[in-house]
Amino acid sequence: MSDSPDVETLAAGVLAGQRRALARAITLVESARDDDRPAAEALLARVMPGAGRSIRVGISGVPGVGKSTFIEAFGLHVVGRGHKVAVLAVDPSSKVSGGSILGDKTRMEVLSRNPAAFIRPSPAGRTLGGVARRTREAMVLVEAAGFDVVFVETVGVGQSETAVAEMVDMFLLLLLPAGGDELQGLKKGIVEIADLLLVNKADGDLAAAARRTAADYRGAVRMLRPANPPWKPVVEPVSAQTGAGLAEAWETVERYRRTMTEAGALQRRRAAQARAALWTEIEEGLRAAFRDDPAVAGALDDAERRVAAGRAPPAAAARRLVARFLAGPRFLAGQGDPR
Amino acid sequence: MSDSPDVETLAAGVLAGQRRALARAITLVESARDDDRPAAEALLARVMPGAGRSIRVGISGVPGVGKSTFIEAFGLHVVGRGHKVAVLAVDPSSKVSGGSILGDKTRMEVLSRNPAAFIRPSPAGRTLGGVARRTREAMVLVEAAGFDVVFVETVGVGQSETAVAEMVDMFLLLLLPAGGDELQGLKKGIVEIADLLLVNKADGDLAAAARRTAADYRGAVRMLRPANPPWKPVVEPVSAQTGAGLAEAWETVERYRRTMTEAGALQRRRAAQARAALWTEIEEGLRAAFRDDPAVAGALDDAERRVAAGRAPPAAAARRLVARFLAGPRFLAGQGDPR
Fold this sequence. Notes:
Chain A is of the alpha/beta class. Helices cover 50% and strands 11% of the residues of chain A. Chain A has helices spanning 7-15, 19-30, 37-47, 67-80, 109-113, 128-144, 160-165, 181-184, 207-223, 246-262, 265-292, 294-308, 314-327, and strands spanning 55-61, 85-90, 117-119, 149-154, 170-175, 196-199, 234-237. In chain A, helix 2 (19-30) runs antiparallel to helix 6. The longest helix of chain A has 28 residues, at 265-292. The two termini of chain A are 27 Å apart.
């Protein structure tokens, strides 16, 4: 990161709620450069005590459901209730480079101009894990900067919903006024992780269909085990266009937070998420070191092929590869010992 | 494993379909002793070309659904159609030691005495990963011994259903004639991975309730995205007691196999499962080495506590722990290099 201010100045700016400092701080944690990492981690450690006080809402839905329009309308409603709203995104398919092209901003023009809102487009990244980590870290920064409502948007590609569900307090799924999951193009398991399902476009010609779809999903959801007891998933029609149902949706978010907090479930969920994130990071670190190991690389391709073809048992192949890895020299002499 | 015959003799016995050799072979792959592992892996590699030709069906359901009675009645029906049926189990909570106490046999007395059936109780093991691996390996052995239908039973504890779904061709879920998932005590996500849902106890007083439950689930399942396209999940009432619906259930299994095979989906599913198993084994190997590392152990507890409390960012904590691990000596000098 060229021309970067020192960590202390940046941290102070973030904690004071300065938008410019916040934007630079996010760019720093999103940087793919290894030499930016120590500063990014120092910054996060520094502002962490100021984070954690928002309600974190994941928002997903298939393309065409009107997600941007919904987030803009919902965000403006929430801002109107006196909150500060940050919108982050998890999009492992995004080609936008780390925060320098604010492509998403044009999608939510009115909200993005509101001083109580902060919209950050998807960080670029090759892996979902990398993108998820950066979003998790950006969340810490926007919270430290005083945003008390965080929307984490997912594009609904790959496993991004699960990744988002693992970093938020509540998962909101936008539905179309249409048939079941298959017709909607919804992914397997996605309905089951939703705490609030909103059937969008409940206006004009589609109002009746939206109500019907909501009733159908209400029936289906009753058959499923709730993701976050004691909370029972809620299904409602909504219109981002007319604003109908937005106030009720926000009340539901607040009720969710209250219910979960009183049961101690929100606290437990966050602790479990943080522990899981630690292990995900550990496993990614180990896997990266394993994949990058020259002694492993060639043998790995061959083993994968043979195992997939049913010609070699997975356990034996894995044991041999791991033994190769563990036997190799990890750090060159003279590079120092990080212990 | 005391008194073990050599691998070649054992492999020949398994491939010839000798039950005694098969039982000993399974005991060998289930052995928790590190020094049994080379022989186990050699045996698996040796019989692997004879495996892979069965239809693998995972069977799950909450306690009280009548799983043993169902598997016995269903197994006898399938044997009656000229097949050879093996029943394996994944039960991470099992205290039964590796195959020496055949506790489960008493559960399926008639089936277990049938010469065309082979029932093996759960291997003991502390981790689901370990238990799943042993079941996966036992499956290779029973297939090599000529069993062309394999039922993998799960007790419905922990994540065992997912583990089973990841090693079978088809997932069969037994339901009670009762309300939705929550009432049934079903786990989140379990309905979504099922290819065939059977509402058991469709006899006597419960026949009407079973039909109603089947209709309810049929509606719910239609709202969900199928786990294995082009297959669409089927829901039917069945009675293990009277045998009603068992023939239809078996026809559905055969139809599933045909549909999936013709679409190339079964082949793809198996290749993906094998690759995933390889990576699971690699990751378990890396994780075990990491956890056992003396330089990591103490720091890990502290890091987990701080991260869970929201006092430290996961990525930084993970990076430090992994660096410690990679910097440490892996093999003592003089123990040889496994490359």
